Amino acid sequence: MHIYYGNDGLILTSLTKENFDSGLSRVDCIYRCRTVTADTLEPTLQAGLPVPDDLAFVIRESAKRKDEQDGFTTFTVSGFYGTLQTTTDGSASIPSVLGIARTNISLRTIRTVATTTTIDYFTTDYPIETLSDTVTQTFTVNASASCLDLLAPTQVLNLKLQTNVTAIESTLKQGYSYTEPTINTRYVYSSLYVSGTIASSLSREKILINVNRQNFGIFDEITVTWGLNIKNITITVPYALSQTQVFT
């Protein structure tokens, strides 16, 4: 029960606070005032203004008003505050959840052999499947902050080839021979392919792959997912002359 003695302003009758892992904080307030002064006081509880009893919190939606039968009016209002910085520097202590992404790409191999008379190209395309880590963070930013200003977290994202590339690499290591019948000469070329080149050619660059954003007044709660920039790759395999055989 609340008894009012000559107070014509807003009387705070209830205040509750809740903090979220994202750094967002919420305060819920209930105010009462005399109905005869409600029209004058209502504009102080409009969206975008600070909560009267906790100025760090900003009202998201204008207060809900209910004129009671006892000559008093009740206002219900919520305010929000973001406890994290407007942008992350990539190493900020923000709760993170690791996930996984499956990506299908194309591997193009070009085996290049420069003979005594021409340059031969052998092009083959292979389907490749990869698995890679993703990292999802939820935090608060200013409502005016651009997601383009966010820096990738320092979390290491791993990459794994799901496709067995042993057979592909075996093909790329194969030698090549060319015979010039006019001079009874056979040229033998060795592949310069290095094992592991396929895996090392895959990008480890982090990119922003998904953003969900919800507004809470002057703050936004944002959920961002980062992943690796997995894309089609081309590997050129050179060959070197290793042997010349002359037939008599």
How is this structure best described in words?
The protein is mainly β and 248 residues long. The protein folds into 2 domains: 11-82, no CATH class; 96-246, no CATH class. The chain has helices at residues 35-41, 166-172, 197-201; strands spanning 11-19, 24-34, 50-51, 54-59, 64-67, 72-82, 96-114, 119-142, 159-161, 176-180, 185-191, 206-216, 219-228, 233-246. The strands form 2 sheets. Strands 7, 8, 9, 10, 11, 12, 13 and 14 form an 8-stranded mixed sheet that branches. Strand 12 and strand 13 (219-228) form a beta hairpin. It is rod-shaped, with a radius of gyration of 34 Å. The relative contact order is 0.17. The mean pLDDT is 87.
Task: Walk me through the topology.
Layout lengths: L10 E9 L4 E11 H7 L8 E2 L2 E6 L4 E4 L4 E11 L13 E19 L4 E24 L16 E3 L4 H7 L3 E5 L4 E7 L5 H5 L4 E11 L2 E10 L4 E14 L2
Parallel strand pairs: 7-14
Antiparallel strand pairs: 1-2, 2-6, 3-4, 4-6, 5-6, 7-8, 8-9, 8-13, 10-11, 11-14, 12-13
List keywords for this structure.
mainly beta, 8% helix, six-stranded antiparallel sheet, 3 helices, 2 domains, eight-stranded mixed sheet, 14 strands, 248 residues
Rg over C-alpha atoms, rounded to the nearest angstrom: 34 Å
Write down how many β-strands occur, each being a DSSP E stretch of 2 or more residues: 14
Structural class: mainly beta
Specify the helix fraction band: under 10%
Number of separate structural domains: 2
Shape: rod-shaped
Condensed summary:
The chain is mainly beta and 248 residues long.
